[in-house]
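Worked example 2:
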Amino acid sequence: MMDGKIALIEAGGTKFIVGVGDASRQIQARTRIDTTRPEETIPAAIDWLRQQGGDYAAVGIASFGPLDLDRASPQWGHITRTTKPHWSMADVAGPFARAFTCPVAINTDVNGAALAEWMWGAGQATNSSLYLTVGTGVGGGAVVGGQLVHGVTHPEMGHIRMPRHPADTGFEGTCPFHGDCLEGLAAGPSIIARWGASLSDLPSDHIGHRIIAWYLAHAIATFQAILEPARIILGGGVMESPGLLARIRSEAVEAAAGYFAGRPQEMIVPPALGDSAGLLGALALTLVEGHPHSAGAKRQ
């Protein structure tokens, strides 16, 4: 187990949550810093961490992306091409490494959440789990056998291509790169673009509830076909809409057509870590990168 204080950063497109914790999962202090420009937000986070003592065993960063995660790359730890103004090619990891001269673990915020939920939350006691966040954007991370799934870079599950709901064929989608990918059809901005309100503010009988549940259920069927995870954890602001989880479970039965394993009531679940998920994601990244085989005991 890693000894000493660990600096934790949940780097979001709207806010940075910065905290101090340790390997026992105790969050000793935290603060919020608005995400403005890299040259403002990152130094403010570093200054706050210095005020907490500044002697850290490691820094964990769970960040919005996309990210360059190739440690052999000169752009390792940088955000690459993002729609967030001023942040494309921003170096996120480097300033913290230079400020505190300790190891830095960085990955996407959704990968951090996926790992934390597998270690301590809704994915615990499974060999494989997938975390999907549905909010301003859509992102996903998967843990198989205690390891995050990566290819050349991290997964971009929100950008899978989707079939079109029969009542939604006239909507072009809001993704600036792909139009009607999953993010372009089911993320918060796409809901507002169609119907002028968030999903939770639409009447309970509004067709938007059925359409969004249908898209997410078909995305789940795709992820089942690729990974067959034992648990699929659905988080993010859109998922706070009353009744959405139940609708997705129902639609998932039809989308699977009896082909995939798992009962939706047990497999498709909400997150368990609550408001601390982001910081615990950053903590999980430091523990696994520092001890790549210690994320958990053998699981079924």
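Confidence is low (pLDDT under 50) at residues 291-300. The chain has two domains: 6-109, 122-269.
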